[in-house]
Amino acid sequence: MKTLELKGYLANVRARKALLGSDSSIADAEVCRNDGLRRTARKRLALERAEARATAAGATPIVSNY
Hints:
The protein is an all-alpha fold. The chain is about 55% helix and about 0% strand. The protein is built from three helices and no strands. The protein has helices spanning about 5-20, 30, 40-55.
């Protein structure tokens, strides 16, 4: 087992995040959503119910493909 020092590990994580940075070539989350073609009937019904509850409560439903 390898022992890591927390401060060193976190510094390494911050360095990697800075190296990756914000890349405009990466699509946003909405574009990366799956198309919902392989969803089960049970999941589709659950998503429909969740959307109906959100609409009834006056909240904006979460975008989902079903």
